[in-house]
TrEMBL record:
PANTHER family: ADENYLATE CYCLASE, TERMINAL-DIFFERENTIATION SPECIFIC-RELATED (PTHR43081), PH-SENSITIVE ADENYLATE CYCLASE RV1264 (PTHR43081:SF19). Pfam families: Ad_Cy_reg, Guanylate_cyc. InterPro entries: A/G_cyclase, Ad_Cy_reg, Adenylyl/Guanylyl_Cyclase_3/4, Nucleotide_cyclase. Residues 207-316 form the Guanylate cyclase domain. Gene3D superfamilies: Nucleotide cyclase. This is Adenylate/guanylate cyclase domain-containing protein. SUPFAM superfamilies: Nucleotide cyclase.
Amino acid sequence: MSDDALLGGLEGEAAEVRRRLIAELRAAGHDEAALVDAAARGRLALLPAERAIRGNATLSTADMVRETGVDPDLLERVMQAAGVAIPRRDEAAWTTRDVGLARLVCGLLDAGIDPAAIVNLGRTLGDLGARLGAAAIVDLGSGLAREGDDELELAHRLARASEQTGQHLVDALGSVLRDRGIEQLLAIELDAGAIAEGRLAGATVVTVAFADVVGFTRLGEELGAERLEGVASQLATLGSAVVAGTTVRIVKTIGDALLLLGQHPREVVDVVLALQDAAEADPEFPRLRCGVATGDAVPRSGDWFGPAINRASRVCSTARPDSVVVDDVTRDLLEDEDGLDWRPLGRLRLKGIGRVALHRVRHAAADDA
């Protein structure tokens, strides 16, 4: 096929840059159909990065089965749950690194894990992979674009970053998973009944906090999508800073909100007050409101569910800007704690819960502590 058909109307220097890119892509093994499709969709500069991420696929599902002894039906169920396209079993679609998933499935099955739980893990890996993929491609990719780039310069820079991501992201993820796994393990409290009933991760009493940006929807209309994303990112950064050195963890970010959780009510309250102080100290950051509740919650697939989560969310919705509000259970647990200033708000109706006694909390002034 003539290069002219792939130029998309480009002329002069831009056309020459496109020709050099096409020559490199052909030398790397991209076929004409892939080039035509990428040119039509404005993706030619992304093909080197795509190749770096995909790696050298030399193994089929059948090869992985022979090498690991994995049940191919179970492996494909896990892949499907993770959102991975299922190739023909004789198609060379996998790299040597992908054998790790087959070994994981085998190891978990040999350890006595129920296949349904393994499939559920695949679903969690898919959710995690989607978020990591978005961060690696969109967030990091946005940081790689340079004003004045030509198509070839951008293609080379994206490919180099993708190679680094492919080489090191899995190892870095292993470190994060180790620490987060320990956090989940420490949140479990076993008793004889749970062991006899075959339950490991049952309901646990925890203190939960929601921190919510006030008027986030209105801000979106005023600031635009990019600035709004910056607000959400800054909230996550502030949250990470205030939980550092504590046993409180950020469970997840939900656009304009953080969900935090801990085993110790005072520590959670101190962290949320510190978050509120950090937000107020930045004149460019929108106002926050926070709600705290204590009760039962259950860890599942890296998330938490249960009455305490719902209660904290409802408590947060009652809070005024720049305030931290806690439920009666948390207030009672902190009855004898020093250094806190309380103001009762009365019994307010929480949607789906009923009337609950709520209290606003602040750090006590130095002369009152």
